[in-house]
Design brief:
Blueprint lengths: L1 H7 L13 E2 L2 E2 L4 H15 L5 H18 L8 H15 L5 H13 L6 H4 L12
Antiparallel strand pairs: 1-2
């Protein structure tokens, strides 16, 4: 798992609109789904399904569109834009429909992940309490 992340840093912009959030040069993820969205993009790139430059341009476009629609910058999420651009690139290639990507991400999320310790213990598998 970590191998891909180490190798991927060269793909990521260190500055500019497409640069991911970092803290002291380390990528930071505000939530487990963000690191999964990141991993999905890298996996698709590693498998040769997406061209990283296509994805980067889509991401820059998504961020630009988002900023135009939210001049105050409130509610900003880099990885929301990331996921949207990934869906755009993937569905544009006819690989999977955008909805399938979310479904696939949910499958990935359901797999017990080695590094997402907080996920496993959150009681998510025991049914939702009081939602019915």
């Amino acid at each position: 798992m970590t191998r891909g992340h180490a190798d991927a840093s060269y793909l990521l912009d260190s500055a500019g609109p497409a640069a991911p959030p970092r803290d002291n040069g380390e990528l930071v993820f505000a939530a487990p789904w963000e690191s999964r969205a990141f991993g999905v993009a890298l996996a698709l790139h590693d498998a040769g399904y997406i061209d990283w430059e296509d994805f980067r341009q889509a991401l820059i476009g998504e961020i630009r569109d988002w900023e135009a629609a939210h001049p105050s910058g409130e509610g900003w999420s880099y990885y929301e834009c990331w996921l949207r651009s990934l869906e755009r690139v993937v569905s544009g290639k006819g690989l999977v429909a955008a909805g399938d990507l979310r479904a696939r991400q949910a499958q990935l999320a359901a797999r017990p992940a080695g590094h997402d310790h907080d996920e496993a213990g959150s009681g998510r598998r025991h049914g939702h309490h009081g939602h019915h």
